[in-house]
Design goal:
It is elongated and about 55 Å long. By secondary structure, it is mainly alpha-helical. Helix 1 crosses helix 6, helix 5 runs parallel beside helix 8 and helix 8 packs antiparallel against helix 11.
Length: 195
């Protein structure tokens, strides 16, 4: 699964054969077929491994925000950004690999994530309406899609560069990761607020 996740993130789902994944992982040609049946089964297993922790953390944050009459824009954006980093403190490399896989699916507008994107907009729209009443529905949706794309790409592709990690790309400290998250939340929040 790790080899498939990395290869799919680098090249895209359609550009990687199951034979290539088996070879990269050091298994026989039939290994993936035995465990997952098809490419679709493998992709769904990778999603089942990557998404639950993110969804669980996001749901808890959104539930808290729903209790507020006028949630703060930064808190709403944090509910987008922070779950994407779920697991990074425990296993930075594996979490970044999972996020890069998800970002590749998003970038390719994969049907695997079509519902996830729609669900995200539906989940956050009521909060955004209360926090940003000056924006019409179309602007809110468009800006939230910008925010989601920016958050995913920034976290998946620029963490090592922007965190100034030791050795120019090593594992960041907890403080570096938190600083990066705060900067990203602030930047996205500013874009959402623009009249």
């Amino acid at each position: 699964m790790d080899a498939a996740e990395r290869l799919f993130a680098e090249r895209g789902i359609d550009a990687v054969s199951l034979r290539t994944i088996n070879s990269e992982a050091g298994y026989s040609v039939a290994a993936l077929h035995y465990h997952f049946g098809t490419r679709d089964g493998l992709v769904r297993a990778l999603l089942a491994r990557a998404q639950p922790a993110m969804f669980e953390q996001r749901a808890a944050m959104v539930t808290n925000l729903e209790q507020q009459a006028k949630p703060d824009v930064e808190d709403i954006v944090a509910a987008l950004v922070y779950p994407l980093t779920a697991g990074m403190r425990e296993n930075f490399g594996a979490s970044v690999a999972q996020l890069r896989f998800l970002v590749r699916l998003s970038f390719d507008r994969s049907p695997y994530l079509a519902r996830t994107l729609d669900d995200s907009v539906a989940l956050f729209r009521p909060l955004l309406r209360r926090a940003l009443p000056h924006l019409d529905e179309r602007a809110l949706t468009r800006r939230w899609l910008f925010a989601a794309d920016l958050a995913q790409h920034a976290l998946a592709n620029a963490l090592e560069v922007h965190l100034d990690a030791p050795g120019g790309g090593g594992v960041p400290t907890r403080q570096q990761l938190e600083h990066f998250q705060r900067d990203l939340v602030g930047f996205i929040s500013g874009g959402l607020r623009v009249p």
